[in-house]
Structure formats: C-alpha cells, structure tokens
Amino acid sequence: MSETTKFLLDEKRIPEAWYNIQADLAEPLPPVIHPGTGQPIGPDDLAPLFPMALIGQEVSQERWIEIPDPIREVYRLWRPTPLYRARRLERVLDTPAHIYYKYEGVSPVGSHKPNTAIAQAFYNREEGIRALTTETGAGQWGSSLALACSFFDMSCEVYMVKVSYTQKPYRRSIMRAFGADVYASPSERTNAGRSILEQAPDSPGSLGIAISEAVEVAATSGGTKKYSLGSVLNHVLMHQTVIGLEALEQFEQAGEYPDVAIGCAGGGSNFAGFALPFVRNNIVEGKSTRIVAAEPTACPTLTKGSYLYDFGDTAATTPLIKMFTLGHSFIPAPVHAGGLRYHGMAPIVSALHDRGLIEAVAATQNAVFDAAVQFARAEAILPAPEAAHAIKVAIDEALRAKEEGESRVIAFNLSGHGHFDMGAYDEYFAGNLPDFEYDAEEVEKAIAGLSA
Ligand SMILES: *Cc1c(COP(=O)(O)O)cnc(C)c1O
Known about the structure:
By secondary structure, the chain is α/β, with parallel strands linked by helices. Helix content is 41%, strand content 16%. It has 19 helices and 15 strands. Residues 111, 113, 140-141, 231, 264-271, 339-340, 384, 386-387, 415-416 line the site of pyridoxal-5'-phosphate.
C-alpha cells in the first residue's frame, strides 16, 4: 500500500449524518440580530426566505444531523470523493512533507457546492416550494443549484455577478442546460439592482449585490419562491462536512493524520466542510492540527477584516451577522477567484478565527496562478482559481517543511476544477494578471458605524 495515490471509499461509506460543530463550541455563536428591533431574530423572521427544516438546522445544537436517504442517493453520483496523496508534487517540491488533497472537482458541476445544493432543494421541495432564487459568483453555485432544482423538479432563478457573467459564458450555458434562468447582476429586475446601476452604471457587480437581488425576489414573491444561499450560513457549512468526515476515514486508510489542514475561504463553506471534523478532533480529542484558511489579498476578510455585526448583502437588507467583514459596501477588485470575492465570512469560521482555533493567510493573484500551474503539471488537475489559493498555501507549507528539514502531513481541500476558468489562465499566461491589493481606506470607510 505504500505507493497508494488515491484513497477511495465504497459508496456505503457516504456519511449518514452531517457534523454540527455548534454542539462542540465552548461558547455559543453570537445571536443573529434583527436590524430594526436590535433583538435576536427568530424563525418567523427567516420563514419568508427559508424552509423550516433549514431554519431548524441553522440553530440546532445537535451534534449529528441525519442525512435523508433521497439526498444520500443523489450523493452516490459522485461521493465519496477521492483523497489523493500528491506524490508527484512532493517530488517536484523535493519536500519531506506528505501532501494530501481531497478532490471535490469530481462532482457533476466540478466543485463541492452540490453537497449543499442537493440538500437545500430537497428540504424546500419537502415543504412544497417549487421555485428557488439565488446569486452566483463564478457560476459554480448557480450551476449546483440549477442541477439540484432539476433533480427535484423545481424552477431556479440565478443572479450572476456581472464580471463573471461576461468572463464565464459557459457557466451560464450549464445553468441553462439544467433549466435555470440566469441574469447578470446588478440587473434591472430588482430595486436593489436598479439602485446600484443608478449610482454605478458600470458596476462589475459583487456577491453582496447579487444576494440583495435574489433575496428581494424571494421576499416579494408572496411565499412562492424561496431563497437559497451557497455558503456562509451554518446549515450550508454543516452540509459540507461530508467532505471532512470522509477525509477522516481516508486518512485512517492512509495511516496518517494531518498536521496542517488547509482550505480556501470565500464564504467559508468548503474550508469548513473539510476542516470542521478536524477542528472537532482538536477540541474534543486533544489533536493539534493547524487549520488554515486561504484567501485573496484583494478580499482579505479574515486577515484584514474586523469581527463586527454586518449585513450579509450590499443593500443592507439581511439580518445583522457577527462575522469578520470588510464592510458590506466594500466591492473587491475583480480577481478571477470569483467565489472568494465576498465582503464577509461565515459566522462559524469567523468565531473560530476570533477564538484562535484557526489561522488565515492571504495570497496575491499571480502567486496563486503560479501554484495552480505547478500543481497541474505535477498532478494533472487544473484547479479552480479559488482552490488554487489552498494549493498556494499548501506548497508554502511544504517548502517550509523542507527548509526546516521536517516531515509533516499537509492536507488541503481541492474545492473544484478550473475547466470553466480557462480565460483566467490565458490572461495569466499572457502576463496580464493584475496583483490586486485591497484598499485599506475603503475598508475603513466601509466598516465605520458597524458595531461589535
Ligand atoms: C464557490 C467556491 C469557493 C468559495 O466558496 P466557499 O463557500 O468559501 O467554499 C471555493 N472554491 C470553489 C471551487 C468554489 O466553487
């Protein structure tokens, strides 16, 4: 077994329950606040947007939540996903470290996102909902929800960040192939979109703006359409824990355990899905894996943001969430890792960072693409630009291990492939990729007035 490259699990080993880290936190998460009343929100406040089952999962303190059979049945199409030992990358780097990656790009749309899309469509359909609205950045989430809606016979309306709508036309085509309607955001279809366009007709859009539009459409639908979010929320992160739970078993097969676990973090869902089971073992079983979130310098939410109550969307219509944020009015530069262009961060990931249970690192765009290409030439998988942030950090860790002459086990989540990001690769090969930094003054302005 010493040369094993892929650690595979049988379909029977698809997890039977999701892991809810809320059960293992020493202190509960700060409450989500209603901006009008200043009081914690209740289920009734969320009911116009989400089905009751998901609202229940959002606040549940149960450690394990059973995965319904119809969801596990769909998971069988691509789960369990492989855990790879990156033997060829180790050789190229000439490092004593052992590098592993969990590959979520084997899903039908090429990323981790269907893990929660399937679950969300299922629970909505169970409660009689026939239409979902959502936003999408690079198009990964939109295609995941479009796929999920087609499985459960629902319609799907997607607001796609304009810069990606232009850069990634084939993601649009996939969504349409699964039957979804796709609009460039900001759009003329909503008050939120029209008001942004009035102030900034050339706005490249942002996830925050697209969220405002999708939420508005659901909230004003008279209960016929609900809203679905691809990241950030507690239930979304929980659905993604199938990644880390499978990885734990695969590491057992490999006879190793990670010293470092890395994931890229936009809203935080793939990072959390991979890392939370390891965080649990740190908290509950006395393990000491370093858990590292990787983000772009253009949108450095964890490394440069502040832990404050902020809105989840740009139009300031959502409840107030305590999270690391760059301010809801902050519009990040158009880096190609569209999925990492979000001003905030999941409350769970934010709380873990605030409590010193995880670390965060930011990387510049060209360094990330250098890492992506180095990885592709060794491991033959062309990563999504988002996932390449995790690769960059993993390579740096492996080189540090080499410098220190120490073997260690480095694990990262490869959240998706980059087959729909070839325009970005072309720009990189042409030497035209800007290395965006964030604007500290803009962030200062954007967080002014937010409270802790
Ligand atoms: C959407 C996406 C991300 C970022 O979202 P998270 O919720 O932070 O995981 C990362 N990688 C890929 C491939 C994505 O599609």
